[in-house]
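If it is no trouble, can you show me the amino acids of a protein and the C-alpha coordinates describing how it folds?
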Amino acid sequence: MATRNRASRRAANAQRGEHELALAGVTYRLRPSHDAIVAIEDVTGRSVMDLYRAGNVGALTLTQMGQIAGELIRAGAEDGDELTSQVDDERIGQLIFEEGVFRAMARLTLCLVDAASGGRTASGEAKAAPASPKRTAGAA
Protein backbone atom coordinates (compact mmCIF):
# COMPACT_ATOMS: atom_id res chain seq x y z
CA MET A 1 0.00 0.00 0.00
CA ALA A 2 1.49 3.33 -1.03
CA THR A 3 1.64 6.16 1.44
CA ARG A 4 0.91 9.71 0.46
CA ASN A 5 3.56 12.35 0.81
CA ARG A 6 2.80 15.07 3.29
CA ALA A 7 3.50 18.68 2.45
CA SER A 8 4.19 19.21 6.14
CA ARG A 9 5.48 16.86 8.80
CA ARG A 10 2.47 17.32 11.07
CA ALA A 11 -0.91 15.98 9.94
CA ALA A 12 -4.00 18.16 9.94
CA ASN A 13 -5.56 18.63 13.34
CA ALA A 14 -9.35 18.95 13.26
CA GLN A 15 -9.30 20.42 16.78
CA ARG A 16 -7.27 23.35 15.41
CA GLY A 17 -9.65 23.91 12.50
CA GLU A 18 -7.38 22.21 9.99
CA HIS A 19 -8.36 20.00 7.10
CA GLU A 20 -6.44 18.06 4.45
CA LEU A 21 -6.52 18.16 0.68
CA ALA A 22 -4.72 15.49 -1.34
CA LEU A 23 -3.40 16.65 -4.72
CA ALA A 24 -1.04 14.66 -6.97
CA GLY A 25 -0.02 12.33 -4.15
CA VAL A 26 0.75 15.15 -1.71
CA THR A 27 -1.48 15.76 1.28
CA TYR A 28 -1.70 19.46 2.12
CA ARG A 29 -2.87 20.79 5.45
CA LEU A 30 -5.56 23.50 5.10
CA ARG A 31 -6.06 26.03 7.87
CA PRO A 32 -8.92 28.57 7.80
CA SER A 33 -7.19 31.36 9.72
CA HIS A 34 -8.36 34.98 9.72
CA ASP A 35 -5.41 36.06 7.56
CA ALA A 36 -6.12 33.29 5.03
CA ILE A 37 -9.82 34.21 4.80
CA VAL A 38 -9.04 37.93 4.37
CA ALA A 39 -6.56 37.05 1.62
CA ILE A 40 -9.17 34.81 -0.05
CA GLU A 41 -11.74 37.61 0.05
CA ASP A 42 -9.17 40.06 -1.38
CA VAL A 43 -8.03 37.82 -4.23
CA THR A 44 -11.53 36.62 -5.22
CA GLY A 45 -13.35 39.90 -4.59
CA ARG A 46 -16.10 37.96 -2.80
CA SER A 47 -17.05 37.57 0.86
CA VAL A 48 -16.52 34.32 2.72
CA MET A 49 -20.31 33.89 2.83
CA ASP A 50 -20.63 34.37 -0.94
CA LEU A 51 -17.87 31.83 -1.49
CA TYR A 52 -19.44 29.37 0.95
CA ARG A 53 -22.79 29.65 -0.85
CA ALA A 54 -21.10 29.23 -4.24
CA GLY A 55 -19.30 26.13 -3.01
CA ASN A 56 -22.51 24.73 -1.57
CA VAL A 57 -24.20 24.81 -4.99
CA GLY A 58 -21.13 23.79 -7.01
CA ALA A 59 -20.56 27.25 -8.44
CA LEU A 60 -16.91 27.90 -7.51
CA THR A 61 -14.70 28.30 -10.58
CA LEU A 62 -11.43 26.43 -10.91
CA THR A 63 -9.62 29.75 -10.57
CA GLN A 64 -11.45 30.48 -7.30
CA MET A 65 -10.79 26.97 -6.04
CA GLY A 66 -7.08 27.37 -6.75
CA GLN A 67 -7.04 30.72 -4.97
CA ILE A 68 -8.95 29.41 -1.95
CA ALA A 69 -6.88 26.24 -1.66
CA GLY A 70 -3.63 28.14 -2.17
CA GLU A 71 -4.35 30.52 0.70
CA LEU A 72 -5.51 27.73 3.02
CA ILE A 73 -2.44 25.62 2.13
CA ARG A 74 -0.08 28.52 2.80
CA ALA A 75 -1.82 29.14 6.15
CA GLY A 76 -1.35 25.46 7.03
CA ALA A 77 2.37 25.39 6.19
CA GLU A 78 4.75 24.82 9.06
CA ASP A 79 7.30 27.48 9.92
CA GLY A 80 10.31 27.02 7.67
CA ASP A 81 8.41 25.02 5.01
CA GLU A 82 9.30 27.33 2.13
CA LEU A 83 7.94 25.04 -0.60
CA THR A 84 4.44 24.80 0.88
CA SER A 85 4.35 28.44 1.96
CA GLN A 86 4.91 29.48 -1.67
CA VAL A 87 2.45 27.24 -3.54
CA ASP A 88 1.12 28.73 -6.78
CA ASP A 89 -2.65 29.21 -6.97
CA GLU A 90 -2.81 28.47 -10.69
CA ARG A 91 -0.90 25.21 -10.28
CA ILE A 92 -3.10 24.22 -7.35
CA GLY A 93 -6.15 24.85 -9.59
CA GLN A 94 -4.65 22.57 -12.24
CA LEU A 95 -4.06 19.85 -9.66
CA ILE A 96 -7.65 20.20 -8.44
CA PHE A 97 -8.83 19.71 -12.03
CA GLU A 98 -6.64 16.60 -12.37
CA GLU A 99 -7.81 15.11 -9.05
CA GLY A 100 -11.48 15.90 -9.60
CA VAL A 101 -13.33 19.09 -8.84
CA PHE A 102 -16.12 17.59 -6.74
CA ARG A 103 -14.02 16.30 -3.83
CA ALA A 104 -11.87 19.45 -3.66
CA MET A 105 -14.92 21.74 -3.79
CA ALA A 106 -16.54 19.85 -0.93
CA ARG A 107 -13.39 20.10 1.20
CA LEU A 108 -12.86 23.80 0.46
CA THR A 109 -16.52 24.58 1.18
CA LEU A 110 -16.18 22.83 4.54
CA CYS A 111 -13.17 25.05 5.34
CA LEU A 112 -15.18 28.15 4.42
CA VAL A 113 -18.05 27.00 6.66
CA ASP A 114 -15.59 26.51 9.52
CA ALA A 115 -14.20 29.99 8.98
CA ALA A 116 -17.65 31.61 8.85
CA SER A 117 -19.10 29.73 11.83
CA GLY A 118 -17.37 31.79 14.52
CA GLY A 119 -15.93 28.70 16.14
CA ARG A 120 -12.29 29.61 15.35
CA THR A 121 -9.66 31.90 16.78
CA ALA A 122 -7.93 34.34 14.43
CA SER A 123 -5.08 31.85 14.02
CA GLY A 124 -7.56 29.21 12.85
CA GLU A 125 -7.64 27.11 16.01
CA ALA A 126 -10.97 25.72 17.18
CA LYS A 127 -12.49 27.49 20.17
CA ALA A 128 -13.54 25.46 23.18
CA ALA A 129 -17.18 24.41 22.96
CA PRO A 130 -19.37 26.45 25.30
CA ALA A 131 -20.69 24.61 28.32
CA SER A 132 -24.36 23.87 27.86
CA PRO A 133 -26.63 24.61 30.82
CA LYS A 134 -28.19 21.60 32.46
CA ARG A 135 -31.94 21.36 32.15
CA THR A 136 -33.91 19.81 34.92
CA ALA A 137 -37.40 18.47 34.81
CA GLY A 138 -39.98 20.98 35.92
CA ALA A 139 -37.58 23.92 36.04
CA ALA A 140 -38.73 26.98 34.22
